[in-house]
Amino acid sequence: MTLSHSPHAGRLAAPACALFTLTLGVNGAGCTGSDTEINKVYPSVALAPEVLSFGDSPVDYSTELVLTVINIGNVEANLSDFVFGAPFTLGEHETVVPANEQISIPISFLPTTYESYAASVSMTTDDPDHPTLIATLTGTGVYAPTPDICVAPLALDFGAVTPGSVSTRYFTIGNCGDGPLNVASMEQAGSGAFSVIGDPTGFTLAGDQEVNMIVNYAPVVSTGDTQTITLNSDDPDEPVTTVTLIGNGGGAEFSYPVPEVVCPTDVAPRDTVTLDGTASYDPEGNEPLTYAWLLIDTPTGSQAELSNTSNATAYLATDIAGDYAVQLMVINSIGVPSAPKTCAFTAVPEENIHVELTWSTGSADVDLHLLNSSGQFYVMPDDCNWCNQGPNWGTSGAGDDPSLDIDDRFGYGPENTNIDSPADDTYSIKVHYFTDNGDTSLTATVKVYLYGDLAGEASAAMTRDEVWDAGLIQWPDGLYQMESSDPYEAPRRTCQ
Fold first, then answer.
1. Whole-model pTM?
2. Is 148 helix (H, G, I), strand (E, B) or coil?
3. In the chain, N or C: fewer CB atoms in 10 Å?
4. Distance from first CA to last CA of the chain, Å, rounded?
5. Alpha-carbon torsion 68, 73, 74, 79, what sign?
């Protein structure tokens, strides 16, 4: 009996009946051969790119790029023994590459000096043709304006404060660097007797600029309170800064109730979001808890409201795209409140074209119109509006038809029109100030989302029965072009 070994499934000289084929000089079912041979299937891997260049990167800032491991074999590939050189680091990644698939390996570059760096990353595989994969890593540390967060004081002691009264202090958030500073989030933990007035997130501090954060202390017990405020910023060497609040000696032996929120993901406009606080608890066992939900941020123009605010589960109907934030505070059975827990999320349109209209007064009826390139104002079927809310425009099914999903007739809006899979065309957006209902002039605002991203927004002052041409959408280019014409008198007021 003779034994031969072929290392590659894609290069076998004879057909294989299974992963392993054994032939003993006779014809098997569907297999032929006069010699004995074993054919084994192996992975076949490659690494791309072979040189990963980070170029010029600011000193003390981390930049991330991705290596790709491709497996064109018919069995999975296993990776191990990763070796890399500083200042390059590997992020979390898979170590198994499925057959005929690929995986990504994140690589970070954090230069600490103004010089050029070169290193490599290598890994071991079970591909006999490529037992080791190697990529060269290069990058240069360069100067760039850098933010430097300065917080003072890092501890606020309110001293002795009688329960039922309020004491006020403040701390300062400053930028001691020469690059813009952004505070991404502020998290509070501990006693709910402290409340911060305002929110430092969402705005940018220039170099040498600062902002004062007011803190009120309103104790409900005399045994002392503490709270920590954690600021997460884009300061490259101090991304996390903690401020400690102390009242009535601090109450170090006391554990405060803890709010827990399951924050929603994959939220779209017009979704009803469930906010789950049922995992909240009191370490001291002083339960049941009382729940207090608060809507603290909505997109400009939103009329969203939070419901079920005194229960463990609250609900929020997102009416427009953008950023929302909700806080939960829990109070234990002896009246001690927790620090608030914030849940922030973004409503992102699912449709490829999503147009929103809001306006500045509380009674007027303002209408959104979306027309295809054949459309005329209020002429069916090519103008989608309040009297033609779901016209049939296309020839490829309902996906390219528009839909007016919200028609608000009594103030502020929003109204929105959507197309899931638009046909290649030029679409025009028009706004009609239909009825004032006692309001006078107003400002109408249109926001256009294309492929889920905000492509642009525009505003115009309008009076009753005026039409504003708010812009054009070029598809499939995904471009929104604002128009410069002033509002004009409406040629008609209903569908024809």
1. 0.70
2. coil
3. N
4. 89
5. negative
CA-based torsion, 29, 33, 36, 37: positive or negative: negative
Q: How many residues does the chain have?
A: 496
Residues ≥6 apart with Cβ < 8 Å to 241: 149, 151, 154, 230, 231, 233, 235
Q: For residues 181 and 200, give the distance between their C-alpha atoms in angstroms, rounded to a whole number.
A: 11
For β-strands 306-307 and 313-317, DSSP reports them as: antiparallel
Question: Three-state SS for 134?
Answer: strand
Contact 464, 471 (CB under 8 A): no
With 0-12 CB in 10 A as exposed, 13-18 as middle and 19+ as buried, what is 109? buried
Amino acid, single-letter form, for residue 249: G
Is the separation of the CB atoms in 301 and 320 below 8 Å? yes
Q: What angle do CA 10, 16, 21 make, to 5 degrees?
A: 120
270 near 319, Cβ under 8 Å? yes
Contact 102, 76 (CB under 8 A): no
Phi, psi of 127 (to 5 degrees): -85, 115
Please state the φ and ψ torsions of residue 82, each to the nearest 5 degrees.
Answer: -75, 130
Please choose, from the candidates 447, 483, 448, 455, the residue with its C-alpha nearest in 3D space to the C-alpha of residue 468. Answer: 483
What CA–CA distance (Å, rounded) separates 285 from 218? 23
Q: What is the DSSP string of 9-57?
A: GGG-SS--SSSS----SS-BTTB--SS-EEE-----EEEE-SEEEEEEE
Q: Of 104, 94, 337, 84, whose CA–CA distance to 221 is shortest?
A: 337
CA distance 68 to 369: 46
**pLDDT values of the chain reduced to their tens digit, one per residue, 496 residues:** 333 333 333 333 333 333 333 333 334 444 444 444 455 688 999 999 999 999 999 988 889 999 999 999 999 999 999 999 999 999 999 999 999 999 999 999 999 999 999 999 999 999 999 999 999 999 999 998 999 999 999 999 999 999 999 999 999 999 999 999 999 999 999 999 999 998 888 789 999 999 999 999 999 888 899 999 999 999 988 999 999 999 998 875 668 899 999 999 999 999 999 999 999 999 989 999 999 999 999 999 899 999 999 999 999 999 999 999 999 999 999 888 999 999 999 999 999 999 999 999 999 999 999 999 999 999 999 999 999 999 999 766 678 999 998 888 888 999 999 999 999 999 999 999 999 999 999 999 999 999 999 999 999 999 999 999 999 999 999 999 998 789 999 999 999 9
